């Protein structure tokens, strides 16, 4: 058989085998990390704290998680968190954000807004592969520490619930790996659209995303993510190139 035809057949086989050899990642190792990277407070007395896991305000040397409960706070737990997640499988847990809503003096400075940064690192586990670059998303938290007196001017469970809203960053990110496109979707249980009156209190448009938190309670917001995948179809240009090589080889063979 003509040498060129042999080379053409071998090249076409190599293209076909490279496409066919791609294998979807079934299981990933992951590490997710969440931290506060900034916070702004109103003017006032008391002490304000912002570190990687805590944003809090209220009485100096007070407490938000026990007596005398004279501080309020937003606290991140379970960070960093490492585990495994299956492609096209169940949701995987990220961190938990808890609002400790305590009655504090009107003279104290209160939280206006804060930035929550979330990073996700994926490493193929089955089949094994190299660690991928991290995904990083910022969430801007707008907050309203309401006065504990009626009327509240929005729907409440207590007098008056505090309002927590979140401006979601890029919650859906996709990447290509070994012949497949993977999509990472981040979401949170407990967060949802709020009515116009509630959103207006924090200067947001109707349907803003968030929740209200009753006085004297700790209200958690749990974050999750999942991974879905679809195979990248063989490009038509590759198929045409392979056929062209075969035809060229056949012509040379006939000559």
What percentage of residues falls in helices of 4 or more residues? 10-25%
- What value does the Rg take, in angstroms? 27 Å
Question: Biggest β-sheet, characterized?
Answer: 7 strands, antiparallel
Oligomer: single chain
Number of distinct helices:
3
Number of domains: 2
Strand content: over 45%
- Spatial order of strands in the largest sheet: 5-1-7-8-9-13-12
Shape: elongated
Query: Which H/E pattern describes the elements?
Result: HEEEEEEEEEEEEHEEH
Return the average pLDDT rounded to an integer: 84
Which spans have pLDDT < 50 for at least 5 consecutive residues? Answer: 1-20
Q: Distance between the terminal alpha carbons, to the nearest Å?
A: 12 Å
- What structural class do the secondary elements suggest? alpha+beta
Number of E strands: 14
Can you give a write-up of this model?
The chain is of the alpha+beta class and 255 residues long. It folds into two domains: 1-22 and 233-255; 28-231, no CATH class. Helix content is 17%, strand content 46%. It is built from three helices and 14 strands. It has helices at residues 3-20, 196-201, 236-254, and strands at residues 27-41, 47-50, 54-58, 71-77, 81-86, 92-101, 111-126, 135-144, 162-167, 172-177, 180-189, 192-193, 209-213, 217-231. It has a seven-stranded antiparallel beta sheet with strand order 5-1-7-8-9-13-12. The chain has a seven-stranded antiparallel beta sheet with strand order 2-3-4-6-14-11-10, with no helix packed on it. It starts with a helix and ends with a helix. Mean pLDDT is 84; it is low at 1-20.
């Amino acid at each position: 058989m003509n040498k060129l035809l042999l080379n053409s057949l071998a090249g076409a086989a190599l293209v076909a085998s490279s496409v066919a050899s791609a294998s979807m990642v079934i299981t990933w190792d992951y590490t997710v990390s969440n931290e506060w990277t900034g916070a702004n407070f109103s003017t006032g007395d008391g002490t304000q704290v912002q570190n990687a896991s805590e944003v809090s305000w209220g009485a100096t040397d007070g407490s938000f998680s026990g007596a005398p409960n004279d501080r309020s706070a937003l606290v991140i737990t379970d960070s960093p968190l490492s585990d495994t997640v299956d492609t096209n499988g169940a949701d995987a847990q990220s961190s938990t954000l808890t609002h400790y809503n305590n009655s504090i003096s009107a003279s104290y400075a209160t939280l206006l807004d804060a930035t929550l940064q979330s990073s996700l690192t994926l490493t193929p586990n089955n089949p094994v592969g190299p660690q991928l670059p991290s995904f990083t998303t910022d969430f801007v938290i707008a907050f309203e520490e309401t006065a504990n007196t009626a009327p509240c001017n929005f729907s409440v469970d207590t007098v008056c619930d505090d309002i927590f809203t979140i401006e979601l960053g890029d919650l859906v990110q996709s990447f290509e790996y070994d012949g497949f496109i993977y999509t990472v979707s981040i979401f949170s249980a407990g967060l949802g659209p709020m009515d116009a009156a509630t959103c207006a209190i924090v200067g947001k448009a109707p349907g803003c995303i968030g929740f209200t938190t009753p006085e004297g309670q700790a209200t958690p917001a749990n974050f999750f993510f999942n991974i879905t995948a679809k195979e990248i179809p063989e490009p038509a240009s590759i198929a045409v190139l392979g056929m062209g090589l075969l035809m060229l080889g056949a012509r040379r063979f006939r000559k």
